């Protein structure tokens, strides 16, 4: 495959970088108009009288839509707005999960994979499906047991195996956690923990109450109010349906148009009791996407929380599950969402983390059965946002003083680079000299350097670019090089710099220093045969090579593998043509 073929077959980056956008953007406006029409046409005077929705992008509200009437029984009722309150049903499960991650980040929970009985030693439930059939509790599980643990993370990701509800209870059950534990002792796990997606309200109520009581010494609702709602300024979100809250709510209805009562869910409150507004849900979405001041969780923690945990079986209602998400793919992007449905109300909070995109839809009434409004909205929104990011001009930062970086550089007097300043004072690096591979188009031999901090830059290729190029017969991933960090080190008095970390060459699961690989090449090309002849004979020479006394010790484990010959052949190729590693060198890569 030549470079031209690679260009036409696959271009990168696969996923554009979310960057600030200059509005208006025609394609994005057209997508939002389609979403507006979709939700407006979904309002039904009997079974879905009110909808509020907000789209967030890059830490800001992109669009806000409100449709129908707050109270369909009142002819003078106004339309809802972003401050109209709705029950959010199972979106409430986001808050026990946030509690878990916050306690973990603060060191109060040692591990997300702590077993539940670490915090509640009297927890027990029958587990006839496990390898140690019997009661799933610490009293029968030993350290050598291979029976999956009922962990905190599994409780938050619908992988606990706990039943949907406690035996002989409904969502209005008003017992306490001690009574719930007593009921569970004579109940049965639906699935071995961690092996099957199974929806459980029990898991979230149990998780919330046990973490609150045993870790924080508080009650769950007070902890959420103090540590999440206040910090995010979510003043219109809570648990208690006071008269003032009810006056501000859109009136929920059943499919026949009859108003739905505002039940108190009792012990199941952590799993579905809460109310909120589209405006408050927008604050939560921006927080989960790493914006809104980063006031709740660190980015690494958020990344963990938004990562899929388990791929579900075909009969489950989502492709994968997360904490506490239902996750499906659209246009190769993970759409991370939480749906909630409770008498008279339906809600969905959804995120596309790669695009820093979020959509919340709150409904008073019954969710339409004939189409998924959120998936349909994303069918308009994702292509438009992706296109906007691809078309956006990257704003690169110049160094405060480019003078120390400008000049000519060489690597072992084999490859040569010039670093200069463009018209915007941004650094660009271009290879020149006798070892330039002319099969690589000139524009891919010039790299921009985005200034991050003193002597540290980020490599930037102009998009779009071929995902892979051939350099000296080796395949080089430009996508892997794009956005890598590039560090300038101080020179010594002679104008030289010795790498502090040796360059490594990766072969399968093994890594070897470039010096060892060169020594391997010397063994194979020490006779009068050419490098090409040596490569052709490598497999036949494998046994002799592996027993050679001069073979570096770090190759001995590789020699034990059946495919050692092929692996050694590839390494000898690198040794005899090690300029194929050059792109890794100047992009501060440790592997080739």
What fraction of the residues are assigned to beta strands by DSSP? 15-25%
- The CATH class name of one domain reads Alpha Beta
CATH fold annotation of one domain: Beta-lactamase
CATH architecture of one domain, please? Answer: 3-Layer(aba) Sandwich
**Ends: how far apart?**
20 Å
Shape: globular
- How much helix is in the residues? 25-40%
Structural class: alpha+beta
Strand order of the largest sheet: 3-2-13-12-11-10-9-8
Low-confidence stretches: 1-8, 138-147, 498-502, 578-592
Average pLDDT taken over every residue:
85
Pfam families: Beta-lactamase, Guanylin
Organism: Larimichthys crocea (Large yellow croaker)
GO molecular function: guanylate cyclase activator activity
Family: Belongs to the beta-lactamase family. Belongs to the guanylin family.
Word description of this protein:
- Helix 2 (about 25-40) runs antiparallel to helix 12 (about 375-390) and helix 3 (about 95-105) packs parallel to helix 6 (about 200-215).
- The protein is globular, with a radius of gyration of 30 Å.
- Among the domains are: about 25-85 and about 240-260 and about 275-390, 3-Layer(aba) Sandwich (Beta-lactamase); about 405-485, no CATH class; about 505-575, no CATH class.
- Strand 11 (about 335-340) and strand 12 (about 345-350) form a beta hairpin.
- With about 600 residues, the protein is of the alpha+beta class.
- The relative contact order is 0.12.
- The chain contains 19 helices and 24 strands.
- The model is unreliable at about 1-10, about 140-145, about 500 and about 580-590 (pLDDT under 50).
- The strands form seven sheets. The protein has an eight-stranded antiparallel β-sheet with strand order 3-2-13-12-11-10-9-8, sandwiched between helices. Strands 14-15-16-17-18-22 form a six-stranded antiparallel β-sheet.
- The longest helix is centred in the middle third of the chain and has 19 residues, at about 375-390.
- This is Putative beta-lactamase-like 1.
- One of its GO terms (cellular component) is extracellular region.
- Its main location: secreted.
- It is found in: Secreted.
């Amino acid at each position: 495959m030549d470079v031209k073929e690679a260009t036409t077959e696959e271009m990168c980056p696969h996923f554009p970088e979310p960057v600030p956008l200059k509005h208006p953007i025609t394609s994005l406006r057209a997508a939002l108009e389609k979403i507006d029409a979709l939700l407006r046409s979904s309002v039904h005077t009997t079974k879905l009288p009110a909808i509020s929705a907000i789209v967030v992008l890059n830490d800001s509200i992109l669009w806000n839509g409100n449709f129908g009437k707050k109270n369909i029984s009142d002819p003078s009722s106004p339309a809802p707005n972003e401050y109209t309150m709705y029950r959010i049903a199972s979106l409430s499960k986001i808050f026990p999960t946030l509690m878990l991650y916050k306690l973990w980040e603060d060191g109060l929970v040692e591990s997300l994979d702590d077993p539940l009985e670490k915090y509640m030693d009297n927890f027990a439930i029958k587990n006839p499906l496990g390898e140690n059939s019997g009661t799933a509790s610490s009293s029968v599980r030993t350290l050598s047991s291979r029976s999956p643990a009922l962990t905190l993370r599994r409780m938050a990701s619908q992988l606990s195996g706990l039943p949907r509800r406690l035996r002989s209870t409904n969502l209005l059950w008003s017992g306490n956690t001690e009574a719930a534990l007593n009921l569970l002792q004579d109940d049965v796990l639906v699935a071995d923990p961690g092996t099957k997606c199974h929806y459980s309200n029990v898991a979230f109520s149990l998780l919330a109450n046990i973490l609150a009581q045993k870790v924080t010494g508080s009650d769950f609702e007070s902890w959420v109010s103090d540590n999440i709602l206040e910090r995010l300024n979510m003043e219109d979100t809570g648990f208690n349906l006071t008269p003032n809250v009810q006056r501000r709510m859109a009136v929920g209805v059943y499919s026949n148009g009859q108003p739905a009562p505002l039940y108190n869910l009792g012990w199941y409150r952590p799993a579905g009791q809460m109310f909120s507004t589209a405006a408050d849900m927008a604050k939560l979405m921006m927080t989960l996407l790493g914006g809104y001041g980063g006031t709740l969780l660190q980015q690494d923690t958020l990344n963990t929380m938004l990562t899929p945990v388990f791929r579900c079986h075909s009969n489950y209602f989502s492709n994968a599950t997360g904490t506490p998400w239902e996750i499906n793919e659209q246009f190769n992007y993970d759409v991370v969402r939480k749906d909630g449905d409770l008498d008279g109300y339906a809600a969905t909070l959804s995120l596309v983390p790669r695009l820093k995109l979020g959509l919340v839809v709150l409904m008073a009434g019954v969710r339409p059965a004939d189409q998924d409004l959120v998936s349909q909205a994303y069918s308009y929104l994702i292509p438009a946002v992706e296109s906007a990011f691809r078309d956006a001009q990257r704003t690169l930062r110049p160094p405060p003083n480019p003078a120390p970086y400008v000049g000519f550089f060489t690597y072992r007097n084999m490859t040569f680079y010039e670093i200069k300043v463009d018209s915007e004072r941004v650094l660009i690096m271009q290879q020149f000299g006798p070892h330039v591979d002319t099969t690589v188009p000139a524009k891919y031999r010039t790299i921009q350097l985005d200034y991050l901090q003193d002597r540290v830059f980020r490599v930037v290729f102009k998009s779009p670019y071929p995902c892979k190029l051939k350099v000296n017969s080796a395949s080089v991933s430009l996508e892997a090089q794009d956005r890598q960090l590039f560090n300038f080190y101080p020179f010594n008095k002679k104008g030289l710099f010795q790498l502090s970390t040796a360059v490594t060459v990766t072969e399968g699961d093994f890594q070897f220093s470039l010096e060892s690989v060169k020594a391997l090449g010397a063994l194979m090309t020490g006779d009068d045969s050419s490098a090409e002849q040596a490569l052709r004979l490598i497999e036949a020479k494998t046994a002799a090579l592996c027993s050679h006394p001069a073979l570096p010790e770090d190759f001995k484990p590789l020699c034990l593998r059946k495919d050692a010959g092929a692996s050694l052949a590839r390494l000898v190729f690198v040794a005899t043509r090690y300029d194929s590693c050059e792109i890794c060198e100047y992009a501060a890569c440790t592997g080739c």
